[in-house]
């Protein structure tokens, strides 16, 4: 499908749903919402959806926040404050603010849009692109908007092709030969297959395109419907499937891929294992996700930091890194890093080693410590001599260790260690 001369995206507004906790990430989301979790050395998870919108040509964006939103709002204010009203651009942060009821927070994904419908209608966008703020992918929403207009659909639903029995955790759609959705079910035990592909299913990405007037009509109807969960996947889309026209948009047709990316890349980094793996994948020689592709940049808050520095050059005490990503402000002092990702402001001291680990901003690795397959939350100070990743029993006692051997370490966990580690 070719782009038109007048992009539809200029008449669209992107609305990012970023209020979820993401409890499967454990203590990483104790103080922040899942979309605010750091990713890739510089960015936050939400930056992918926002960058896709910006790169697609959308210049009106709203972000609905709810759960522990301070760090997310702070990031958005610092990194996404460049929109200009005189260019008909806007960027709105929309916390749950009891706009409809003095006692009602956002009750579901659809309600998070409904409660801000007056703000949306004041901007008068012709189309709405509803996005989840907690997935890692690159996508041109203009192509999805084009399909929506050409098909005459009431709603277009972004979807992934996945192995059929892996779709049990998603909203799954059954489609006809023209990709019109004939059934939409949430987390089915026996997912419907794609026509002609009995072992594959179409799983919802949590991306929806509507004409704004149609969306407003359905949101108001749903708000007046007793028993509704106020949810797009559970209520709005199934209703349109039964009473209107819903069409599937396949991610492969609008995924942005650099020359090195062999497959369409989409990840839900909603578990510690998935989060660790997606970050560590970036250290590959040819990673499955190319964050260096300047044709589709990942926009984020650009911190002012000094260059990364590697010091000491003695046998056994050499600052070195192999197959690793090191952000600005890091000092690797007489220590070795392998297949690891360090966010800004990390310090690693002499004789320490870090392997296959994801180190969030402003952490410090003490002298002689050894870390393997770890995720360190922001600001963690690893005591000198601490070893994590070599003794499963010790790791399980003091840290959150997954079945795959990944250890999540927080400041509270370090504080709870025996006194001998704090001397």
Automatic annotation (TrEMBL):
Reaction catalysed by this enzyme: alpha-D-glucose 1-phosphate + ATP + H(+) = ADP-alpha-D-glucose + diphosphate
The keyword Transcription regulation belongs to this UniProt entry's keyword annotation: no
Pathway note: Glycan biosynthesis; glycogen biosynthesis
Alphabetic keyword roster: ATP-binding, Carbohydrate metabolism, Glycogen biosynthesis, Glycogen metabolism, Nucleotide-binding, Nucleotidyltransferase, Transferase
InterPro entries hit by this protein: ADP-Glc_PPase, ADP_Glu_pyroP_CS, GlgC_bac, GlmU/GlgC-like_hexapep, NTP_transferase_dom, Nucleotide-diphossugar_trans, Trimer_LpxA-like_sf
Family named by the database record: Belongs to the bacterial/plant glucose-1-phosphate adenylyltransferase family.
UniProt name for this protein: Glucose-1-phosphate adenylyltransferase
Gene: glgC
